[in-house]
Structure formats: C-alpha cells, structure tokens
Amino acid sequence: MRQARRESAARTYARSLPIVPVRARGMTVEGADGTRYLDCLSGAGTLALGHNHPVVLEAIRGVLDAEAPLHVLDLATPVKDRFVEALFDTLPPEFARDARIQFCGPAGTDGVEAALKLVRTATGRRGVLAFTGAYHGMTAGALAVSGDTAIREAIGPGADEVTRLPYPHAYRCPFGAGGAEGARLAARYTETLLDDPSGGVAAPAAMILEVVQGEGGVVPAPDGWMREMRRITDERGIPLVVDEVQTGLGRTGAFWAVEHSGVVPDVMVISKAVGGSLPLAVVVYRGDLDRWWPGAHAGTFRGNQLAMAAGTATIGFIRENRLDEHAARLGARLTAGLRELMAAHDEIGDVRGRGLMIGVEIVDPHAAVGRDGVLPPAPELAAAVRAEALDRGLIVELGGRHGTVVRLLPPLTMTESQADAVLQRLADAVPAAIARVRSTA
Question: What are residue 13's phi and psi, to 5 degrees?
Fold first, then answer.
C-alpha cells in the first residue's frame, strides 16, 4: 500500500505480482508472508544463475574484501581486464578477432543507444531498419526502433528515421502463410524494399534485430531467415546489429543466440545476465566501425566493478558447466510438457521458444478465427493464468502484442524436478483460470 502511494504510475511488475520478496536462493523466492515461489521471471532474464548464486556472491565479496575501487569510470582495472577476456573468449572467433568493446550506462537500452550512435557515426547515415514486434528498451532511440505503439507515444525525434520491416512469425504470420513460406516472404519483402528506387528507403545506417523477440511474445527467428538478413545487409554494406540483451549467455541453448544460425553480426548489444545480476551493459563491434572520438559516448556508471566481477564469475560458471546445453535439454523437456498441456486445452494456441526462453500463447477458442488464420488473443484469460500460477507458487509474466503470451525465463540452473514442478503448477493454473473467467462472463 505504501508503494502504491509513493511510487510512480509507471510501476509494472508490482501490479501483477503482489508479493514482497525477502529471501531468495537459486530459483526459489520467499515472500514476507513465508510463501515460497518458483521464479520463472528471473529478473526479466537477468539472473542466469538464479538468485544469490555462490560463485556470484564470492566474486562480489572478493572485490569488497580487496578494497578495490568500486567506481572507476572507464579506467583500466584488473577486474575489468578479466571480464573482457572472459567475454571475448565466448564470442564467435571471427567476430572476437578484431572486435572492440564499449562500456555504456548500466541498462540494455543504454547499449542500444550506443550501438545506434556507433553505426550512425561510422556510416554517416541516419536511417535504421527495425522489425515489427521488436523491443529494444525504454529510452528515445531504443523506443524508436521498437514495435509497440503503446510504449512509443512519447519517443520524440528519431522515429521517422526508422523503417519497419515484417518479422517472421510462424503462428501469427504477417503474410498469412506461416512457417518457412512466411519467413521467405518476409526476407523477400525486405530485399525488394531496399532495392526499389522508388521504395522511399534511403541507405540505412544499420539493421537491428532480436534473434528471439522477448517482449514481442517469445518469437524465434528461423535460422534461414537470419542468414538471409546477414546476406542482405552484407551485400548492401549495412551493419547488422543484434540485440542479445535477453538471449545471450546460454539462454536459448547456445551461448549466443546468433550461433544457432551461424550468423556473425557487426555489432552485438549485451546486458542483463552479463552483469551476474548487477547492472552492466556493453556493445561489442567490428574494429573498422570504431570511428568515435574520445568522449563520443560515455556513462557515469560504465565502470561497475562489482558487476564485472559478478559477470566474469557467471560467464565462467555457464561455460564450465555447459549450462547452454543444459538449457537446450531442459527447454525441450518443458516445451514438450507444455505442448501436452496445449493438446488438452483449446485455450492454448501455441507453445514456442528456444532453450529456456519459452512462450505459451493464450487464445479464445470460442471466437471466430482472425484474418491471420488463428484464434484471437485472450488477454483476460492470460492475466488469470498468471494470477492462478502465482497462487500456486509460480512466478510468470506476460508478453506479446496483446499481453497474452505467458513467458517462462527460468534460471539456467533449474533442475529437472523444478521443471516438472513448473509444468504441474501451470497444468493446475490453466483450468483454474478458465473456470475463473467463465464464472465472471
């Protein structure tokens, strides 16, 4: 109640998840009332190793016990040096060989802003190619390349410099085709628009995309389409910016989501899990794009030593324990279980994702099929599923264009027994939500 009185109307998670967390370890969160929850939100994907992982705590304590400086702007430190070495060791070799890194402000949106400034400086061009359904952050430039009009109302200058392209969506295909044909048409449209002398699109500074759209409803890009975007941008001298803020560090079943398709980007934006639960954002890019002058991009908190130490520990633990492979296996287990649940309930229209980045789309089976060939979304029912899941000790959030995709972003350390518990709680929550909505109809 005090939070509602004092905090801004912009608060979000606190509205839909009315809990007061006081303790947490791994995937388990305990509320002030003693209720224990399985956390499938993980700080919006930030907690790759879950809450308070021992290797992360040890790394943070090591910096504190050494009395190392915590605030160093962009000065070189042993902590930063170890972080950069660890990060570059994970990158595709052909990318890392001549890459540069820019430390930004502490959030992913700061990284997107830096990436946009970088490519505009390097190319001397202004326009950006972005995609429907995209989400890249909440600052002006990042909002301009996002797709949700509801959160772009006050973006200010820059929106008119963005050309919106269709993102392939196997379930809600913008062309009504779906599958491989929908992806082919999306690529064809992109290429035709760029090559049309009367298409109205000037040579852009970059293309920016997510390999799996997160806030857009957990929509994975087909590998073939990704390779087509790389070919199209390569042939036209357009830098390809890949937003790996949510997909990076093993989340999708590969250390970096681009590895599924073999695509090597020109620029990668990295945040969330890379700070080991603490604020950190970086942009890694091809050396020949490094045409900034000193001070061209900065940020007061770009030297977060605790986050770099926690990030180094997180990277090391994921690699040593092959948690990307674990995410692929456990993600397949969860997806299979959710598809069994879908077979039992017409209210589940689709189950999709990659690794431990999974979405369950909730639809209205009693409505007419829409122009996209599938049932319309059911936002009230999706909200009821989230509430019923919380009542059963499971934290999930919603995403997608209509807020009807139940999103699962559990930590990569989740066990098989925890995965089975998640499935059981959802299996109980879905019919309860259906009954709740019917009773109020």
Answer: -60, -35
